[in-house]
Design brief:
Number of strands: 0
Shape: globular
Structural class: mainly alpha
Radius of gyration: 11 Å
Distance between the termini: 28 Å
Largest sheet: none
Oligomer: single chain
Number of domains: 1
């Protein structure tokens, strides 16, 4: 698997991938599944995703 986002922050990954607007829209709608999908698309693992969900007041279902 190519690690094209290695060394980037989460926001940098979202911006470079073109998913930053979709991410914040999903956060606003509280669409946990979409948020997780977007974060996995920018190569984040579950250990990194869970704190992001928590920070945004979201939980896995």
């Amino acid at each position: 698997m190519e690690k094209k986002y290695l060394g980037m922050t989460v926001n940098e990954r979202l911006y470079v991938s073109g998913l930053i607007d979709a991410f914040y829209e999903a956060i606003e709608r509280k669409d946990v599944n979409k948020v997780i999908s977007i974060l996995k698309e920018v190569e984040l693992n579950d250990a990194s995703i869970d704190p992001i969900l928590e920070f945004n007041g979201l939980k896995r279902k």
